[in-house]
Amino acid sequence: MNIGIVCYPTHGGSGVVASELAIGLAQKGHEVHIVSYAPPFRLRAFHQNIFIHEVDVASYPLFKFPSYELGLAAKLVELAEIHHLDVIHAHYALPHAASAYLAKQIFNARRLKTVTTLHGTDITLVGADPSFRRVVKFAIEKSDGVTAVSHYLKNRTIEEFDIRREIRVIYNFVDPGRPAQNRGLCAREAFAPKGEKILMHASNFRPVKRVGDVVRIFAQVRSQTPAKLLLVGEGPDRPFVQQLVGEMRLGSDVHFLGEQDQLEPLFFCTDLFLLPSEQESFGLTALEAMNCGVPVIGTDIGGLPEVIAQGETGYLLPVGDIAGMAAKAVELLNDPAAHELFKTRARRRAEQFFDAARIIPQYEAFYQEIMNS
Ligand code: GMT
Order of strands, edge to edge, in the sheet holding 296-299? Predict the structure, then answer.
């Protein structure tokens, strides 16, 4: 198949899923055209069968806001024509699914199909904003196929937008073979010279991630067990988090690592991953942690219960229950036998339910179904 994939190039989950899907499809011989405003970070290396196209956004003195949506639609029409695309797969509804719809109308060929994958904030946060609502609903209804990354997100979309069409759940995925390639790249002693436990959090530091809670959980853990915290990512809450770390006098035990293209080397240094989000439609970082054998403590919201098995691969507690999350962390870190069991189960669960080799064929089959309809 010739597949156009539209995504964000930044360090967010939707861009990671789109990039890893592109790699998986390309390895299976499909021709994949990535369309974005910059090369996605996971696709900076060369991959056979993947072609990257940056969207041109024309500016003109009359335009107060240059239109990315129209530039994207124009690029998709051009690619559909030149490369005979069978499918345009939009990751994240806004504005990608709307631009894909427009491109299809302009191209006017029955053969070209559009698929939209809903990732989370496109429904729960941005999409729910009154200024975008109608457009998101329209784009979902007009896509030839729609997928959601969890049952939670599917149900939430149906309720929120009163959707009556089919939404297929296709889970996010990981490559169970990848961690081995990154083992040994991170020296534990560099972060924890006295054998302290290492906790980690990675996100885009937006308010929904509650990174302040990560710091407060860590403070409680550290008061009972020698520990260090690795904070990975960048975003609007970083100054506040940095200030909090200073106010709580945790400075020497917290490492800010900024954005990282690959998390696996760091997971091999990590004993426990923290994800105390307020919203999480799936929680890709939790799955990536589990794939490297790292148990996760998170919140019992959104799609996280579909990823983390309560009491087996981690613990899920109510949003804001800092004391509860800290208590579970201390319990697990101080029980080597239980910790080892959680690690083994985490890795096994990632492999059993979220292996790329199981999930990518689900996308291929979905494209085929849509093309035959
Ligand atoms: O978390 C974000 O705001 C980034 C967002 C994205 O689009 O990159 O993440 C969403 O998609 C990920 C990949 O499917 C999911 O793993 C995240 O749970 C989801 N984020 C939220 O629902 C808050």
Answer: 254-258, 227-232, 197-202, 272-275, 296-299, 314-317
Model-level pTM? Answer: 0.96
Measure the CA–CA gap between 285 and 289, rounded to whole angstroms. Answer: 6
Residues whose beta carbon lies within 6 Å of some atom of ligand 1:
12-14, 17, 92, 119-121, 149, 172, 204, 206, 208, 279-284
In angstroms, rounded to a whole number, what is the distance separating the alpha carbons of residues 107 and 130? 30
Q: How far is the CA of 2 from the centre of ligand 1 (A)?
A: 26
Fold for 178-354, please state it. Answer: Rossmann fold (3.40.50)
The dihedral of CA 366, 49, 177, 89: what is its sign? Answer: negative
Q: Of 2.60.40.420, 2.30.30.140, 3.90.740.10, 3.40.50.2000, which CATH number belongs to 2-173+355-371? A: 3.40.50.2000
Quote the CA–CA distance of 217 and 333 in Å, as a whole number: 13
Residue whose CA is at the smallest distance from ligand 1 atom 4:
12
List the pLDDT tens digit at each of the 373 positions of the chain: 999 999 999 888 999 999 999 999 999 999 999 999 999 999 999 999 999 999 989 888 888 888 999 999 999 999 999 999 999 999 999 999 999 999 999 998 778 999 999 999 888 877 778 889 999 999 999 999 999 999 999 999 999 999 999 999 999 999 999 887 878 788 899 999 999 999 999 999 999 999 999 999 999 999 999 999 999 999 999 999 999 999 999 989 999 999 998 899 999 999 999 999 999 999 999 999 999 999 999 999 999 999 999 999 999 999 999 999 999 999 999 999 999 999 999 999 999 999 999 999 999 999 999 999 9
Please give the number of the atom of ligand 1 that sits closest to the Cα of 125.
23
Residue minimizing CA distance to atom 3 of ligand 1: 121
Q: Closest Cα to atom 21, ligand 1: which residue? A: 280
